Amino acid sequence: MSPEQLATLAAIADEGSFEGAAYELGISTSAVSQRIRALETSLGRILVRRGTPSTVTDDGAPVLRYARQQALLAAELATEIGGVPAGAEPVPLTVAVNADSLATWFRDVLVAAGSWHDTHLQVVADDEAHAVDLLRRGAVMAAVSTDPVAAPGCRAEPLGVVRYSPRVHPDLLARYGVRTRDEVPRLPAVRFDAKDELQDTALRAAGLPPAGRGPAVPSPSAFATAVRAGLGWGMLLDGQVEAAPELVPVPGLEPVERQLVWQRWTIAAHRLDRLTEAVQRAFRG
């Protein structure tokens, strides 16, 4: 496995196509295809699923993880023995962060990263419950997760607890004639996306069936706006609750707390150490 082949696999994973990888690497699409074919032949495995988009296969996941680790370690070595060469490209750090964190405390990490001239962040927005899978597949080097069990080749460090409270506009309660806990399932619930299970988690804790159908609003601020507009009830962060005094608790439902965990590769790399320190500072506020 040559460095060029590994870099090409990583570029395809990042760009989602052979054409995008070719543009990123400054080579032809044919050269991208030849490199991947040679890499697959040498390993006897199909590493890339061709299509729109092109994605890394299960067999390609450990190779992608190795490719990213080698690129990071090579940059770390260059820094250690001679500093960052003039004109050197910043090293990408791929990080998975859930949307609520991106809209709140993780913004301070982005501000800090603005001064890291040897690094640039590539943020993947995904649900925190699925972050370990991204780490396992080599799609990211670090992630905000809810899984306390470290992914292979990673270490897990607790960050702290975030709390979501069930809130609803009183006009919606009146419209559906909901006064008691047992009547809550008839209310529509706002969901962030198809992966959003927070509302159903609160209902299960109260011994109730899943929430009624409501709108999907995949934006933290717009989600809160939808709840405030009476489109449905939803689980809101403490800061969102404070900003919406007109909302009331959903009858019979309790807040849901989630422990956030920072997972990162275990390899020794000052760039990952610096990112970890920034994440810890930002979460503590």
Task: List the defining traits of the structure above.
two-stranded antiparallel sheet, seven-stranded mixed β-sheet, about 40% helix, alpha+beta
Structural commentary:
The chain is α+β, with helices and mostly antiparallel strands. The chain contains twelve helices and nine strands. The strands form two sheets. Strands 3, 4, 5, 6, 7, 8 and 9 form a seven-stranded mixed beta sheet that branches. It has a two-stranded antiparallel sheet with strand order 1-2. Helix 1 crosses helix 2, helix 2 crosses helix 3 and helix 6 packs across helix 12. The two termini are 43 Å apart. The mean pLDDT is 92.
Backbone structural class: alpha+beta
Shape: elongated
Q: Give a quick account of the main beta sheet: strands, pairing sense, barrel closure.
A: 7 strands, mixed
Roughly how much helix do the residues carry, as a percent range? 40-55%
DSSP summary: helix tally: 12
Task: Please provide the ordered H/E string of secondary-structure elements.
Answer: HHHEEHEHHEHEEHHHEHEEH
Low-confidence runs (pLDDT<50, min 5 residues)?
none
From the alpha carbons, calculate the radius of gyration and give it in angstroms: 22 Å
Query: How many angstroms separate the termini?
Result: 43 Å
Beta-strand level of the residues, as a percent range? 15-25%
Domain HTH lysR-type: 1-57
GO molecular function: DNA binding; DNA-binding transcription factor activity
Family: Belongs to the LysR transcriptional regulatory family.
InterPro entries: LTTR, LysR_HTH_N, LysR_subst-bd, WH-like_DNA-bd_sf, WH_DNA-bd_sf
